[in-house]
Amino acid sequence: MKVGIVGLGLIGGSLGLAIKQAQAHPATQPTIANLPWTVLGVSRRAETCQHAVSQGVVDEADVDARLLTAADLIVFCTPPGTIAPMVEKLKPQLQADTVLTDVSSIKASIVAAISSHWPNFVGGHPMAGGSESGLSAAQASLFEGRPYVLTPTASTPPEALARVEALVRCLKAKLYYCDPVAHDRAVAWISHLPVFVSASLIAACGTEPDKTVQSLAQAFASSGFRDTSRVGGGPPELGLMMAEANRSALLPALYAYREQMDQFIQWIETQNWTAIALALHQTQQARPTFLSDRDR
Ligand code: NAP
After folding, report:
1. Residue 226 Cβ < 6 Å to ligand 1
2. What is the pLDDT of residue 226?
């Protein structure tokens, strides 16, 4: 089977490494037609293509997407806004039975835009990543034990789904299925809301009027602040993409969060320590239910 990867950054590079590793250890190799997998990479910069081949991430790479003409499965690993236009451009060069999938963190708009003109499309989203980006941050084990969500629709051909499922198994990820809209609502809570909560935390700390206190706060900030500010201090384009592409799911999550904050403010103003203790006990109990075994 020929697998094409478009975008050889953290996610695309990790996919390539994971597939190549599975090939090197046949016991874990996926079994579509029991054929060996060839990995073809496409990236916009020639330098990235050269690194990907020399580091064993892919078998062949090119800046020209025509490399993918004979691919059986193509995984789009570029920013969400680039995927539908790329599919549109690549379409005339593909075989009709080529299966397309993507890895982006937004599903409803992408699934709607692509499935209508390429039926063999299955939306996907690996719930794995990190603070680093680019090919140099890629790791073969990135997806191991992590959720990998597929969002087939009623019209997704079963053969197309089977091909993407084989890929996910090869990555040793945990397969989940859900509707694209439910996916976007779920990630609004656990991925997109945290970016705005964390960004608000950093911005609020910056409003301290006393410069001495401000400097002390900056000097004293340690692991707690590092953990809670990480996603709010990430690349601005990522948060902007989340707000624009998932606005309808993000807004209700932000309103709910604001209500929780107002509730804590009211309890602190009225010195209702019993209510605060109970609420914090409940959040302490609830936190592990949102974490995988690997993160607990
Ligand atoms: P990344 O490390 O920055 O890699 C992005 C790749 O896309 C690079 O190969 C880059 O090419 C290419 N690219 C960037 N802008 C492009 C454009 N305008 N046109 C064509 N190619 C472009 O990013 P990533 O973290 O792998 O993210 C890629 C996808 O994975 C995104 O859709 C993201 O939503 C999804 N995702 C990310 C995470 C995460 O935590 N990072 C988790 C799950 C899913 P060059 O290297 O040649 O510049």
Report:
1. no
2. 96
| Whole-number percent of the chain with pLDDT over 70 | 97
Assign 25 a pLDDT band (cuts: 50, 70, 90).
confident
CA separation for the pair 159, 156 (Å, rounded): 9
Distance 76 CA to ligand 1 centre (A): 9
Residue 45 CB less than 6 A away from ligand 1: yes
Nearest CA to ligand 1 atom 35: 104
Binding site membership of 14 for ligand 1 (Cβ less than 6 Å)? no
Q: What is the reported pTM?
A: 0.92
